[in-house]
Amino acid sequence: MRWVIFLVSLLITVSAFAEQDKYQFDNNEQAARFSELTKELRCPKCQNQNIADSDAVVAKDLRDKVLALVKDGKTKEEVIDYMIDRYGYFVHYDPPVTPATLVLWVLPVLIVVLGFGFIVLRQRKASVKQTWTTEDEALLAKLIEQNQRQEQN
Amino acid sequence: MNRKLLALAPLLVFVLLCVFLYQGLFANPRELQTGRIGQAMPTFNLPDLMDESKRWTDTDLKGEVYLLNVWGTWCPTCLAELGYLTELREQGVKIIGLYYEQGYDPDFDGQFDINALRDDVTSMLNRAGDPYQFNILDLKRTLALDLGVSGAPETFLVDKQGTILLHHTGDINPRVWRAKFAPLMQELQQ
């Protein structure tokens, strides 16, 4: 029993990270801001990596600049604006609403609205009251009678 | 009639999607809209590549239409465009080089040999053509960062007032020149 517990315990692993940053900060808040920013800013050279991830020269330069700005006490928005000033909206993974990007925001909403509109319209059409006259009643009775006769035969 | 139109809707959506995606085939993802277009040249004070006692500032460059070409000897595409840029210089286009040194890292100061770099630059320009009036050395890539440069080669077109009109990423060849630069240059000369 004891060694069963031992074997089962081997299946449970805990990952440990020894993280030693080469960047030095005055306080934890600055460190958090730096790490947030380098994950949110996009490398202009290797386009599908953020600047924390990329080894490109420009990514390192941007990291160093973010570090300097954060240490200067700049807020997150100020650093992002600084980068957008130079590298355009491309450099931030969260693009703002501009005429060029409007379609990204409008299209999904439009599709949902149109889809629901279509469903509601169909529902309404289907639930319109049908007319039922005495002639229809007579026809129905006749058909039932015919059917019963066929079954008897 | 209405029903027929409705039946055609998926086809219409499909065709629109095709047009959109087809256009995407020819879009260049490296073509970035950077932030500096329409703005003034950032202020800077940097040494000449060949003579560190000489310094260049943004005000020195005002008064003439010029191209600012970001390049480096480490960059093969820069080498490829030197010939055509030299042709442009012979046609009277003023081209200023911004030397983008990739090997220099401020964190490892002192590893950099300026004389070796100068030899490298001189031999390359002798071989492939020298389009530059002069070269500015941006060792720490501070001006490059202020300009939104992500690598080399990149070229800026700047007017007499020092306003950046164009930021081109990639090499300059006759096709790019005709399509992007020539119309603006013509406008500026009028």
UniProtKB/TrEMBL annotation, chain A:
Signal sequence interval, chain numbering: 1-18
CcmH/CycL/Ccl2/NrfF N-terminal domain span: 7-143
A GO molecular function held by the record: metal ion binding
A Gene Ontology biological process term: cytochrome complex assembly
Keywords assigned by UniProt, alphabetized: Cytochrome c-type biogenesis, Heme, Iron, Membrane, Metal-binding, Signal, Transmembrane, Transmembrane helix
Superkingdom to which the source organism belongs: Bacteria
Ranges annotated as spanning the membrane: 102-121
GO cellular component: plasma membrane
InterPro entries membership: C-type_cytochrome_biogenesis (IPR051263), CcmH/CycL/Ccl2/NrfF_N (IPR005616), CcmH/CycL/NrfF/Ccl2_sf (IPR038297)
Cited Pfam families: CcmH (PF03918)
Family: Belongs to the CcmH/CycL/Ccl2/NrfF family.
Task of the protein: Possible subunit of a heme lyase.
Protein name: Cytochrome c-type biogenesis protein
Species in which this protein is naturally found: Pseudoalteromonas lipolytica
Organism classification: Bacteria, Pseudomonadati, Pseudomonadota, Gammaproteobacteria, Alteromonadales
From TrEMBL, chain B:
Keywords recorded for this protein, A-Z: Cytochrome c-type biogenesis, Disulfide bond, Redox-active center
Pfam families for this protein: Redoxin
PROSITE patterns in UniProt: THIOREDOXIN_1 (PS00194), THIOREDOXIN_2 (PS51352)
Source superkingdom: Bacteria
Gene3D superfamilies named among the record's database cross-references: Glutaredoxin
GO cellular component, one term: plasma membrane
GO terms assigned for molecular function: disulfide oxidoreductase activity
Identification of the protein by name: Cytochrome c biogenesis protein CcmG, thiol:disulfide interchange protein DsbE
